[in-house]
Write a structure and sequence with these properties.
single chain; alpha/beta; TIM Barrel; two-stranded antiparallel sheet; 12 helices; globular; binds flavin mononucleotide
Amino acid sequence: MADGPVNIFEYEELAKERINKPDYDYIAGGATDEITIRRTRAVLDSIMLRPNMMVDISQRDLSTTVLGQPINLPLMLDPAGHHSMASDEAEIATVRAAGAMGTVMVLSSHASRTLEDVAAEASGPIWFQQYLFKDRELTLEMANRAEEAGYSALCLTADAKVPPKRERNIRNNYVGGVSPNYSKIDMGTHTSTFGADAPAGPRDIRDPAATWEDLDWLASNIRLPVVVKGIMRGDDGRRCAEYGAKGVIVSNHGGRYLDTTFASIEVLPEVVDQVEGRIEVYLDGGMRRGTDILKALALGARAVLMGRPLFWGLAVDGEAGLRAVITLLRDELNGAMGMCGRPTINSIDRNIIGTVSPLLGLFPQSADFR
Ligand SMILES: Cc1cc2nc3c(=O)[nH]c(=O)nc-3n(C[C@H](O)[C@H](O)[C@H](O)COP(=O)(O)O)c2cc1C
C-alpha cells in the first residue's frame, strides 16, 4: 500500500478529516443544488481521448508561457480566499509551492495574508485578483499596490457581483474572515437587511453597476495587463478582447455563484472561436486529472487553473502537500500526453477529442438500433 494519497480525490478525503466542517463545506460547496459542480465532473469524464500511436514522444516538454511569462506546466493556481483554512502558513505556503513548481499563483484579494507579504516570498510570476469597486480610486489604488509589490497581471473577477446562495454555509451559520488586504480601507457603512446601518464588508464595496466600459477604463488606467475571470459565453469572450483585456479565464467560479450553468469546458470552444487568437484563453473548473488538463488544452485553452485542490494539498502537508498535488497532476498530464502521441503543449490539438461513440456512426437510421 502506498502511504499517501495517489490522486486528487484521495487528497480531498484526507483534507476533509483535517479541516473543520464549516470550512470544508465552504471550500467544497457551491451554489444552491450544486448541479454545476456535479455536471462539471460528468462532462469532463464523458469526453473521450483518441490517442495516436508511433509518434516520437521520447522528449516530452510541458513548459509553455502565459502572458509571455514562462511556466513549467500549463497549470496555474486559481485565486481563492483564506488559505489559512487549510494551513497555518496560508498563502505563504502556496506562493512558495508555486515558485518551486514553476507556475503562477493568482493571489485572491481575500487572502489571509497581505499581498505584500505574499509577494515577498515569490520566486516566480504572481498575479493579483480583485474586483471593480464602486470607488474607482480605490480600484486603482489596490491595482497599483499589487503592481508595486511585484505582481505582473491583474485578474479581474467579473462573475461575483451578486452574493450567492450557498446552502451548506447557511446551515453552518458560516461567517468568513476579512482579509488584511482590506484592513486599511474605510469601507463605510451599508444598510443591512434589518434596516440599520451596519459596518460595510469587502463585498459591499464591489460595484454591481460595472460594465464593459469599466473594463476599458481599468485596462487603460493601470500598467498591468488585465485578465478577466468568470466568462461563460463566446460573445463575452470577444468583448474582453475588444475592451482591453489581455487574457480571459473561462470559468463559472467552480459552481459557487450561479448554479445550473454549463460546465466551463463545454463553453470553452465558443470562447476560443470568438476571441480569434487576439488574447489568451485559460480555463478553470473541475481540473482533477492530467487528462482533464489535456482535454482543456485540446479544446483551445492555453493553460488551466485549479481552485479547490490547492486547499486539499495545503491541508494534507502545507507547502509540501501543495507541491505534491501539483506534481501529481503534472505527472498524470505528462503520461497522458505521451500516450496520446502529443509530446509538447503546442502539439495538443482538438483531433484527440471525441464525445460521441464512433459506433453511433455505424447505425445512423437503423431500426435495429432503436
Ligand atoms: C474556497 C474558495 C475561495 C475562492 N475565492 C475566490 C476569490 O476570492 N476570487 C475569485 O476570483 N475566485 C475565487 N474562487 C473560485 C476559484 O478561483 C475557481 O474559479 C474555482 O475554484 C475553480 O474550480 P475548481 O475548484 O473546481 O478548481 C474560490 C474558490 C474556492 C473553492
